[in-house]
Amino acid sequence: MSRRRQFGDFQSHLRARPPRRGAVRGPEVISAPPPVSLLTQLQGSLQQVRRTRSTSRPEKEPNMITHTRVHLQTLVLLFFAVHLSQPVCVEVPSATEAVLGKPMMLTCIACLRREEIKPKTTVQWFFMPNTDDITEEKTAIYKYEGESPVELDGPFKGRLTWKGSQDLQDVSIEIKNVTFNDSGVYECIVLREFEFDFFTPSVSVSKDIKLRVKEKASTDTTALYSEIMMYVLLVFLTFWLLVEMVYCYRKISKSDEQTQDTAY
């Protein structure tokens, strides 16, 4: 009787003690929490990726738009810079052969070294005919002083026309109805006076043009070839500029598409 009581007390003592980890308590086994399925893990990963894209998309789109706008503005500025460029003064020699009865341009260009400074300019034209007399003096035929040109008395009275520019860098004149007596040496003198606070410096430029009058015009193939090459070069540069603009536009579009694919 005492043994049965002791055995019963021992069983009750075992039931009251907490079981050890992984121990078997009668017919019941302490099991771990049920495992998460692979499909549930994939769904959670997809939802996390979608949240990341939705948060990062507003940050990338403004950058792409700004990048495109900068390139387009650069192309527009390049286009206007080509078409709105200011002319440059270039000193070129005058033609020396005239045709009888035709007008003749006497080109005289004296460029300013500093175009932002506006000096007081005076222009004088002189003529000395082709004669054997060494003592032949030159004759004043044209003058530009102040705001208007003045045609002086002499053999060219009524046949000279001002063809210069407004800034007086080009001070050319034209002779109408050229005759054989117009053959000779023409001198162009440009006097510029600069007004400053303490002194007034002046600069004088002189150019000579030896003119010959012919009955018929001679064929000048060099001038013809130069003009043809000028037009060919102009067409080539225009075409090259258009190709560059199309290439840049396509490159920008391709870059934007790649950026959008990366963002999405």
UniProtKB/TrEMBL annotation:
<dbReference type="GO" id="GO:0019871">
    <property type="term" value="F:sodium channel inhibitor activity"/>
</dbReference>
<feature type="transmembrane region" description="Helical">
    <location>
        <begin position="228"/>
        <end position="249"/>
    </location>
</feature>
<feature type="region of interest" description="Disordered">
    <location>
        <begin position="1"/>
        <end position="32"/>
    </location>
</feature>
<keyword id="KW-0393">Immunoglobulin domain</keyword>
<keyword id="KW-0406">Ion transport</keyword>
<keyword id="KW-0407">Ion channel</keyword>
<keyword id="KW-1133">Transmembrane helix</keyword>
<dbReference type="InterPro" id="IPR027098">
    <property type="entry name" value="Na_channel_b1/b3"/>
</dbReference>
<keyword id="KW-1003">Cell membrane</keyword>
<dbReference type="Pfam" id="PF07686">
    <property type="entry name" value="V-set"/>
</dbReference>
<dbReference type="InterPro" id="IPR003599">
    <property type="entry name" value="Ig_sub"/>
</dbReference>
<keyword id="KW-0739">Sodium transport</keyword>
<keyword id="KW-0894">Sodium channel</keyword>
<dbReference type="GO" id="GO:0044325">
    <property type="term" value="F:transmembrane transporter binding"/>
</dbReference>
<keyword id="KW-1015">Disulfide bond</keyword>
<dbReference type="InterPro" id="IPR036179">
    <property type="entry name" value="Ig-like_dom_sf"/>
</dbReference>
<keyword id="KW-0472">Membrane</keyword>
<dbReference type="GO" id="GO:0005272">
    <property type="term" value="F:sodium channel activity"/>
</dbReference>
<comment type="subunit">
    <text>A voltage-gated sodium (Nav) channel consists of an ion-conducting pore-forming alpha subunit functional on its own that is regulated by one or more beta subunits. Forms homodimers and homotrimers. SCN3B is non-covalently associated with alpha subunits and induces the formation of alpha subunit oligomers, including trimers. Interacts with SCN5A/Nav1.5; regulatory subunit of SCN5A/Nav1.5. Interacts with SCN7A/Nav2.1; probable regulatory subunit of SCN7A/Nav2.1. Interacts with SCN10A; regulatory subunit of SCN10A/Nav1.8.</text>
</comment>
<feature type="domain" description="Ig-like">
    <location>
        <begin position="87"/>
        <end position="206"/>
    </location>
</feature>
<keyword id="KW-0732">Signal</keyword>
<keyword id="KW-0851">Voltage-gated channel</keyword>
<keyword id="KW-0813">Transport</keyword>
<keyword id="KW-0812">Transmembrane</keyword>
<keyword id="KW-0325">Glycoprotein</keyword>
<keyword id="KW-0915">Sodium</keyword>
<dbReference type="GO" id="GO:0001518">
    <property type="term" value="C:voltage-gated sodium channel complex"/>
</dbReference>
<feature type="compositionally biased region" description="Basic residues">
    <location>
        <begin position="14"/>
        <end position="23"/>
    </location>
</feature>
<dbReference type="GO" id="GO:0086005">
    <property type="term" value="P:ventricular cardiac muscle cell action potential"/>
</dbReference>
<dbReference type="InterPro" id="IPR013106">
    <property type="entry name" value="Ig_V-set"/>
</dbReference>
<dbReference type="InterPro" id="IPR007110">
    <property type="entry name" value="Ig-like_dom"/>
</dbReference>
<dbReference type="GO" id="GO:0086091">
    <property type="term" value="P:regulation of heart rate by cardiac conduction"/>
</dbReference>
<comment type="similarity">
    <text>Belongs to the sodium channel auxiliary subunit SCN3B (TC 8.A.17) family.</text>
</comment>
<protein>
    <recommendedName>
        <fullName>Sodium channel regulatory subunit beta-3</fullName>
    </recommendedName>
</protein>
<dbReference type="InterPro" id="IPR013783">
    <property type="entry name" value="Ig-like_fold"/>
</dbReference>
